[in-house]
Specification:
five-stranded antiparallel β-sheet, mainly beta, 39% strand, 5% helix
Length: 230
């Protein structure tokens, strides 16, 4: 078994209710199980602990059939956006999922292991020796921007990629905001967001300088927005 994946330490702890946005998701940018066939990759998400017997563990996954993926070098890509996870092989999209979106920092792993996933580990002679050779890893970040969400904990509808500037209500609704219905916001370091209760930057306001899981007393009151960057 070979894997390229991301994880956050708190993924292993079960919560009630589950909250992958805050506590992270195991994101398998790809898993490859030779014993399950040499021409498939598996994209899996795991969150809320790893107890498979008591119903707390959560998971989602898809498979991609890719003849020839087991030989030669390939470029595996993974895109993590506020809305979804997108998977690529050699520049071509091969999978997409929009559940369990993590909004916390995670670290990257490459690994090989022998276990019961993807085949019978007691039939190892059929699948080993095996190896994973990594030529390079590149990590890219999108240009900084503000993202607004319809519900607390970065859930609900998503209004991404807001640049610095002033946004009145018609501008925001044209981008996808629902009036008086915004609850959480992600803000790059050093940026300042001022949210106003009414259109055209009037009424009560609140200044936000870091990620906010929920707007507290300003929940569901946003009608215009002023964003400044360093």
């Amino acid at each position: 078994n070979i894997a390229f994946w991301l994880i956050q330490h708190s993924v292993g702890i079960a919560r009630n209710p589950p909250n992958p946005a805050i506590y992270g998701t195991e994101i398998d940018a790809f898993e490859y199980h030779r014993a399950a066939g040499t021409d498939s990759l598996y994209y899996n998400l795991h969150w809320n602990g790893y107890n498979f017997s008591d119903g707390t563990h959560r998971a989602a996954g898809i498979a991609a059939y890719l003849p020839g993926v087991s030989t030669g070098f390939h470029i595996f890509g993974f895109e993590w956006t506020p809305k979804e996870y997108i998977f690529y092989v050699d520049g071509r999209e091969t999978g997409r999922m929009n559940v369990a979106i993590s909004h916390t920092e995670e670290f990257i792993l490459f690994s090989t292991e022998i276990n019961g996933f993807g085949g019978d580990r007691f039939q190892m002679s059929k699948t080993i020796p095996d190896s994973l050779e990594v030529d390079y890893l590149k990590v890219y970040a999108r240009k900084p921007s503000v993202t607004v969400y319809g519900s607390c904990d970065y859930q609900g509808w998503v209004l991404p990629s807001l640049k610095a500037g002033d946004y009145n209500l018609p501008m925001l609704t044209s981008l996808g905001l629902m009036n008086d219905d915004a609850s959480s916001i992600e803000i790059p370091v050093g940026w300042v967001v001022t949210a106003y209760e009414h259109d055209n930057f009037t009424g009560d306001s609140v200044v936000v300088t870091s990620d906010s899981r929920c707007a507290g007393n300003f929940d569901n009151k946003l009608s215009s927005l002023r964003i400044t960057s360093p």
